[in-house]
Amino acid sequence: MATIVQIDPTQQLDPFKSVKKIPTHEFFTSGHRTCQGCESALVMKMMVKAAGPRTIVLGSTGCMYVANTTYYSTSWVVPWMHTQLGSSGSAALGAAAGLKAQMRKGKMKQEPINVIAFCGDGGGADMGLGAISATMTHPDYNLLILLYDNESYANTDIQLSGSTPWGANTTFSTPGSVKRIMHHRWKKNMAGLMAVGHPTCRYVATICMSYGLHGMNSIRKALTIGGPTFIHSLDPCPKGWDYDPIQSHELGELAVQCGIWPLYEVEDGKLRLTGRTQQIADGKIPRKPVRDYLLRQGRFAHFTNDDLDYFQSKIDQMWTKWLIPGVIPFEKDLAADNPPA
Ligand SMILES: Cc1ncc(C[n+]2csc(CCOP(=O)(O)OP(=O)(O)O)c2C)c(N)n1
Ligand code: SF4
Ligand SMILES: [Mg+2]
């Protein structure tokens, strides 16, 4: 017989109905040294604004640690702790378990406190994957892991990670005159991996803070549902992607609009496309060509037309063959592939 696990109450964070309803209080404020146009810094600001004041934030090494806590200054207004590069999962689980024990022993007031651990793509999709995966199998602790994905090990000068797109120019994959494409692997599918491999994780979502209300409401939903939850955010990074910082917001929108970054959530095993992605899938707005997105970034400046066509064919394949790319079959298409007898 399955063990029934008692999950502690969570804060009931209703979605913000519109941008006008978003509170003006800031819990991630001035004092950081991220680059101009850094979308990951925006993610931190919106993440903790969505969560509210009764929140503990834990962050693994990376730009969002180093640039946010330099020389005894910090932009965090809520309690914050640094954790080692690969240990956002362990830190989240440990903090949630510690709070639970303190409250059970009467050493702290019983109240729901949000525990959010963030990690970069290097820290989350590569180095800390094991700890995150283990944490997602503990249904009796309330915590959120937010992976902010700038598609490189940005803080140490833009080395490629398992989340770097095919062909991108990084300090580990600089195009040369003999060999143009130096990175041949397709981006790792973290949200799909978390959703499919961890039935104890009740909520997984992809977000991009160019759609801020959507991103904040996904965070509020994750924290309200409780148990271990996971959100993957795509964050344009002017330094690593090589573009003028003024374009950050637009690039995030383009990533969604060209279909390279589908927005979806998996709640209790049920998949739902969200935001612009849903509108594209419903045929309400067209999916833009991926070249519109790639050619805005210096990291793809060496692409030939053949490279762009190949990239487009991979995105098309994601959209026609998979609903969560690479993991969950797209039902509409499966039906077409296998017509009823
Ligand atoms: C175990 C370990 N290896 C290497 C480093 C050096 N290091 C510090 S930050 C960083 C980059 C992390 O990349 P990511 O998690 O993607 O975060 P980003 O810097 O892109 O925000 C690296 C490799 C470290 N701190 N710890
Ligand atoms: S390198 Fe990228 S992620 Fe790091 S602070 Fe600069 S813009 Fe932000
Ligand atoms: Mg990174």
Question: Can you tell me about this structure?
Answer:
The protein has helices at 39-51, 63-66, 88-104, 121-127, 129-135, 190-197, 212-225, 238-241, 248-257, 275-281, 291-294, 305-321, 331-337, and strands spanning 55-60, 80-83, 114-120, 143-149, 203-207, 228-234, 264-267, 270-273, 322-324, 328-329. With 341 residues, it is α/β, with parallel strands linked by helices. The chain has a single domain, classed as Rossmann fold (3-Layer(aba) Sandwich). The chain has an eight-stranded mixed beta sheet with strand order 2-1-3-4-6-5-7-8, sandwiched between helices. The longest helix is centred in the N-terminal third of the chain and has 17 residues, at 88-104. It is globular.
Q: By CATH's scheme, which homologous superfamily applies?
A: Thiamin diphosphate (ThDP)-binding fold, Pyr/PP domains
Distance between the termini: 40 Å
Instruction: Tell me the number of strands.
Output: 10
Predict the CATH topology.
Answer: Rossmann fold
